[in-house]
């Protein structure tokens, strides 16, 4: 297994968006090195990150955030968070050589993160996710709609090989 995902342009884009949110409780699924978790800890009373590997960095501990070794959010109580965010492995590959970047066939990893987020977020909460232009946005919109949420693009960054976009899901 590889180590935690190291921050790159996608993390920077998501971090900029997350700085505009605040509230009682926030969850980051797939927290990686916890850079975005630190941002959440600065503007939420409770900030929790989950990942399948321990973060390589330790500065998140000083932020007041909590971290759980967990695969997604299935271990957390239903409807617990005001904000749930994720920057999933989103590169489409049949066999993941690097699980920190590859979202699997048909991008099932990002969809699993979304389903976990929809389970963990309060009905009045928001989900903020980063996806690239290969994601079938219609499928993400449909999944959100089934749970009473609508999906809207809130930020985009063009890279030389892809477009990265941040989406927010909020109650209909």
Structure description:
This protein is α/β, with parallel strands linked by helices. It has a domain at 9-127: Vaccinia Virus protein VP39 (Rossmann fold, 3-Layer(aba) Sandwich), CATH 3.40.50. It has helices spanning 9-18, 35-43, 108-120, 137-146, and strands at residues 23-29, 44-51, 66-69, 81-86, 121-132, 149-158, 163-171. A 7-stranded mixed β-sheet has the order 3-2-1-4-5-7-6, with helices on both faces. Strand 1 (23-29), helix 2 and strand 2 form a beta-alpha-beta unit. The longest helix has 13 residues, at 108-120. Mean pLDDT is 87; it is low at 98-104.
What are the salient characteristics of this protein?
172 residues; alpha/beta; Rossmann fold; 4 helices
Summarize this structure briefly.
The protein is α/β, with parallel strands linked by helices.
Write the layout of secondary structure elements.
Layout: H1 9-18, E1 23-29, H2 35-43, E2 44-51, E3 66-69, E4 81-86, H3 108-120, E5 121-132, H4 137-146, E6 149-158, E7 163-171
Parallel strand pairs: 1-2, 1-4, 2-3, 4-5
Antiparallel strand pairs: 5-7, 6-7
Helix pairs in contact: 1-2
Which sequence of strands runs across the widest sheet? Answer: 3-2-1-4-5-7-6
The global form is globular
Terminal residue distance: 39 Å
CATH class of the domain at 9-127 equals Alpha Beta
Largest sheet: 7 strands, mixed
Beta-strand percent range: 25-35%
Whole-number mean pLDDT: 87
Structural class: alpha/beta
């Amino acid at each position: 297994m590889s180590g935690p995902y190291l921050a790159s342009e996608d993390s920077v884009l998501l971090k900029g968006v997350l700085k505009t949110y605040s509230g009682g409780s926030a969850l980051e699924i797939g927290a990686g090195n916890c850079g975005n978790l630190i941002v959440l800890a600065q503007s939420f009373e409770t900030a929790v990150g989950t990942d399948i590997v321990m973060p390589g960095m330790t500065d998140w501990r000083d932020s007041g955030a909590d971290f759980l070794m967990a695969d997604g959010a299935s271990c957390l109580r239903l409807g617990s968070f005001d904000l749930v965010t994720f920057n999933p492995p989103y590169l489409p590959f049949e066999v993941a050589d690097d699980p920190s970047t590859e979202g699997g066939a048909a991008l099932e990893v990002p969809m699993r993160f979304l389903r976990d987020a929809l389970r963990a977020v309060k009905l009045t909460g928001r989900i903020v996710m980063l996806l690239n232009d290969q994601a079938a946005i219609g499928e993400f919109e449909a999944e959100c709609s089934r749970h009473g949420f609508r999906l809207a693009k809130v930020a985009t960054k063009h890279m030389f090989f892809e477009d990265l976009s941040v989406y927010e899901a909020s109650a209909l």
